[in-house]
Amino acid sequence: MAKQYQWQLFFSADGPLDAGFVGSPDLSVHTTDATSGVATATYYCVDSNNLNGAPAGWWRNNRSSEFVTVITSWTASIDNRNNLTINTTTKIQRIWRGDVVGSPTQYDNSGRWIRVYHQQGGTELWNYHDLNIAQAKEIGANINLGNYSFTLPPGGGSQSNHNTMYYFNKNDTYTTDGDRINMGLLFTNILPPDYRPGAIRDNGGVWQSHNRNNGEAHILTADSGSWREMRTESGLIAAGNPPSIRINNKWMNQRLIGKE
């Protein structure tokens, strides 16, 4: 079986009055071995200048929304140590302000700075200063955010997943933390941290690792008569994931050895 990874449309936010997906996109987790793909989603984020004396909940009837449609395409590759490398291209198909309700600037005339990144703390890729959140308008179209690459190690944990876009929306006159939105796609490396153990001696007398990029280590299975790749992990440290080797009267997982 080809090695698999997972991807899904992603949204996670701190700060917005309200934000999320527009419509009913497919939010399921996709487990796949596809080497490429593309996905589209539209997001919204509510703005309202409801400080300086506005009653609680005032923003619900006095607001506007930023809308952004994002297209993400990607390629995926997995190396001999089960590291997953994702190369993405992100494009904002369209960004606009709409859904103006009531008077969102009644208590304050502040505008918004919109800034876009591949990741929080990264390089700013695009920005726009909106002077009036009470006015419906086209903000931008066909904005190419360029390529973004990252490698996810196997084994699970927080280092094994990563999303592709960060959107920062901040008031332009008074101090706030701003709306901090992670969006785009989330990729997860679901593979174990395993390898092909052992080595083979080449014609030059060098022991070449079975785990090198063009290496292999297979066993012919008796039940199906097919060749199955042999992989294990934690050589001479853990046991129970053959192929094994007898060490000090114990069967242990084989080591990763040889030149890679």
Task: Give structural notes.
The protein is an all-beta fold and 260 residues long. It folds into 2 domains: 5-188, no CATH class; 199-253, no CATH class. 0% of the residues lie in helices and 50% in strands. The protein contains no helices and 18 strands. The protein has strands at residues 5-9, 12-14, 19-21, 30-32, 36-47, 63-78, 84-101, 112-117, 124-130, 137-152, 161-171, 179-188, 199-201, 207-209, 218-220, 227-229, 244-247, 250-253. The strands form 5 sheets. Strands 1, 2, 4, 8, 9, 11 and 12 form a 7-stranded antiparallel β-sheet that branches. Strand 17 and strand 18 (250-253) form a beta hairpin. The two termini are 23 Å apart.
Number of spatially distinct domains: 2
Q: Report helical residue fraction.
A: under 10%
Order of helices and strands: EEEEEEEEEEEEEEEEEE
Note poorly predicted spans.
Answer: none
Query: What spatial form do the alpha-carbon principal axes imply?
Result: elongated
How is the topology of this model organized?
Blueprint: E1 5-9, E2 12-14, E3 19-21, E4 30-32, E5 36-47, E6 63-78, E7 84-101, E8 112-117, E9 124-130, E10 137-152, E11 161-171, E12 179-188, E13 199-201, E14 207-209, E15 218-220, E16 227-229, E17 244-247, E18 250-253
Antiparallel strand pairs: 1-4, 1-12, 2-12, 3-5, 5-6, 6-7, 7-10, 8-9, 8-11, 11-12, 13-14, 15-16, 17-18
List keywords for this structure.
single chain; 260 residues; mainly beta; 2 domains; seven-stranded antiparallel β-sheet; five-stranded antiparallel β-sheet; 0% helix; 50% strand
Short description:
The chain is an all-beta fold and 260 residues long. It has no helices and 18 strands. The relative contact order is 0.17.
